[in-house]
Amino acid sequence: TIARLVGIEGLFNLCNYFQGDKVYIPTVNTLLRNVRNREIILENNGYNKKELAEKYNLTIQQIRHVLKDE
Q: How far is the C-alpha of 28 from the C-alpha of 38, rounded, in Å?
C-alpha cells in the first residue's frame, strides 16, 4: 500500500495535498523513457541522429520521432 511505501506521515501529506483528486503514477519504464527522450533532445545538434540512435539503441526513425515531439 502507499502507506508502506511513503509512511503514514507521507500518506497524510499526499492526502492533504491532493484532497481527493485522482493522481496518475507512471510506470518506471515511462519515467525512464521520458528521461531518455529529454537527454536525446539535449544532445541533438541537428547532425547526430545516427550517433544518438546507436547510443540509445533506437532507430533513426525513432530518434526523429522523439525530436519531432519536443
A: 15
Report the C-alpha gap between 24 and 22 in whole angstroms: 7
Helix 28-43 to helix 60-68 angle, to the nearest 10 degrees? 90
- As a whole number, mean pLDDT of residues 55-68 equals 97
Q: What is the mean pLDDT of residues 20-37?
A: 96
> Which residue, among 47, 48, 44, has the nearest Cα to 36 in the 3D structure?
44
Smallest CA-to-CA distance from 47 within 20, 67, 21, 23 is with: 67
Band the pLDDT of 70: cuts 50, 70, 90. confident
